[in-house]
Every structure is written in C-alpha cells, then in structure tokens.
Amino acid sequence: MRPVLAFALMLALCLPAPSAQANINASSPEITQLLLDKSERTLYLLNGRTAVRKYRVDLGTNPEGHKRFRGDGRTPEGLYYITHRNPNSNFFLSLGISYPNAADRAHARRQGRDPGGDIFIHGRGARVQNPPPDWTRGCAAVTDSEMAEIFDLVRPGTPIFIKP
After folding, report:
1. Whole-angstrom Cα distance, residue 25 to residue 32?
2. What is the pLDDT of residues 120-151, one digit of tens each?
3. What is the pTM of this model?
4. Per residue in 87-98, is it b (16+ CB within 10 Å) or e — as a string?
5. Rounded-to-integer distance, Cα 22 and Cα 48, Å
6. How far apart are CA 105 and CA 107, in angstroms?
7. Which residues, other chains included, contact 25 with Cβ-Cβ below 8 Å and sequence gap of 6+?
8. Is the dihedral of CA 155, 83, 157, 62 positive or negative?
9. 125-139: string of b/e by CB count within 10 Å (b at 16+)?
10. What is the largest CA-CA distance in the chain?
11. pLDDT of 158
12. Is 44 helix (H, G, I), strand (E, B) or coil?
C-alpha cells in the first residue's frame, strides 16, 4: 500500500494550479502517467511531473468509493495501467484499464462476488450524444474529439492513478 500512497502523493504535488491549462501543440511531450481525480471529475495526462493536458470526465453511475463488484456502478481507485488501445470500441475509441488487479479479485472472491472488469477511458460514440453526468458503468468518459486526442497520446503500459 505504501508504494501506491507514495505514487499518489507524487502525482498530487505535480498538478498545476486549477486555473492553469497547458497549451500543447502537435509536438506534445510523451505521456508518462495519467491521474484521474474522481472528486474533480478530471483526467490529467502527465509528462513526468508536468500536466500537459486535462479533460473533464463522466464516471460510473455510483462514483463514490472504490469499485468492488460487477454492476456496482463505481469507478476503481488506486494504481492501474493502460492495458490496450481499442480502435473498434462501441464508445468511439477506448483505452483499457487493468482493473481488476490481484487485490480486487481477492476481495471479490472473499465476498463470493464477481469483481467485474472492462473498465476503460472512452468516448461517447454515436449512441450517446447528450448523456447525463456520471452515466458509465464504471469507466471514465470524455467527448469523442477528446478521446481521439487521448488515444493518440497514451500508450499501453502507461500507469494511471485513480484518486478518490
């Protein structure tokens, strides 16, 4: 647990002031980590300790607390990784998140439940044009144009810390 807290603290210290918005052109620096701040509904793309992009996100239908089980409508919390890029997503484009990890699976198993899965950062797609806030099943959603930008910048293996 200590490495996760240390990583979270490091990310929290490197965020820009709330009014700061990076203006990055096509020659964007490499994205080395992501921070999803659930309470702020904000996804930050970072290069080292510098936030180079930020996006407003919609979360799961029950966003408070860590995802525990399939169907709970929660977005996970903690340290995960981008597993893959899906250009054929039902929600425009998507990036897979490594939920559930071993601890998530063990917790669900102790409760006799399924931890769920298929957690992504994704767009809206053609079927979801004007969604209500926090409409996903536990994912983080952005607009399609934002997702195209994120998809181009973020590679599999990139760590993502999801903060409560």
Report:
1. 17
2. 999 998 888 889 989 999 999 999 999 999 99
3. 0.82
4. eebebbbbbbbb
5. 14
6. 6
7. none
8. positive
9. beebeeeeebebbbb
10. 49
11. 98
12. strand
The first and second tokens of residue 146, run together, are: 């934002």
The helix or strand, by DSSP H or E, that contains position 57, with its residue range, turns out to be none
162 contacts 139 by C-beta, under 8 angstroms: no
The answer to whether the beta carbons of residues 122 and 93 sit under 8 Å apart is yes
Q: In sequence order, what E strands does the chain have? A: 33-37, 42-47, 50-56, 78-86, 94-97, 120-122, 140-141, 159-163
Cα 45 to the chain's mean position, in Å?
A: 10
85: nearest Cα among 26, 162, 150, 31: 150
d(C-alpha 21, C-alpha 91), whole Å: 26
The first and second tokens of residue 157, run together, are: 């293996």
The distance from CA 137 to its chain's CA centroid, rounded to whole angstroms, is 13
- Residue 61's Cβ-count burial label (10 Å; 0-12, 13-18, 19+) is middle
